[in-house]
Amino acid sequence: MSSTGRVPDMQSIAALARAAVMQRRHCAIFLTAVLFKDSFAMTDRTSDATLVEQASAWPFASTLDRLTAAIEGAGLKVFARIDHAAGAKDAGLSMPPTVVLLYGSPKGGTPLMLAAPAAALDLPLRVLVRDDADGRTQVSFHPVVPMLMAAGVPEALAKRLEPAQALLLRAIQP
């Protein structure tokens, strides 16, 4: 019963429920913003701590071939090749050559995901290969140790994957 002594009808109950849900959503968004404001402010894609970007000595196609060969030569697997330029073309848009390779090894990644399940959001590893505005091929990736430590992986365990990124930089040198 309401304060007026009448039983509320279903329409009133539904309106109150919708208002409560919306209030919870706004509260959740506010709390998320307050709790994680420092994390969002620290995310800087150009920072050395969050992004490694190196110009390749080779043209785009050769760079992709060299990276794939280096990954597979180290006993790792290329799980996926995402061609963003092809996706853009399918959507009637254009962009310079841009491919992301997802690579790694279940033997290397599984222990990290067992130690910190959130690490699965960042594994397998990724490497971006793209042509920049000047036509140079750039290779980019997020450094594995800080990335995985942010997911809760102990530093010593995260460092085990550093060689999988070091091989990328060696592969694009003359």
Description:
The chain has 174 residues and is an alpha+beta fold. The chain is built from 7 helices and 5 strands. Strands 1-5-4-3-2 form a 5-stranded antiparallel beta sheet. Helix 2 packs antiparallel against helix 7. The model is unreliable at 19-47 (pLDDT under 50).
> Could you state the order of secondary-structure elements as H and E?
HEHEHEHEEHHH
* Radius of gyration, in angstroms, nearest whole number: 23 Å
Proportion of β residues?
15-25%
Number of strands: 5
Mean pLDDT: 82
Number of helices: 7
Helix content: 40-55%
Low-confidence stretches: 19-47
- Major sheet characteristics: 5 strands, antiparallel
Secondary structure: elements and pairs:
Blueprint: H1 10-42, E1 52-55, H2 60-73, E2 77-83, H3 84-90, E3 98-104, H4 106-115, E4 125-131, E5 137-141, H5 144-150, H6 155-158, H7 162-171
Antiparallel strand pairs: 1-5, 2-3, 3-4, 4-5
Helix pairs in contact: 2-7
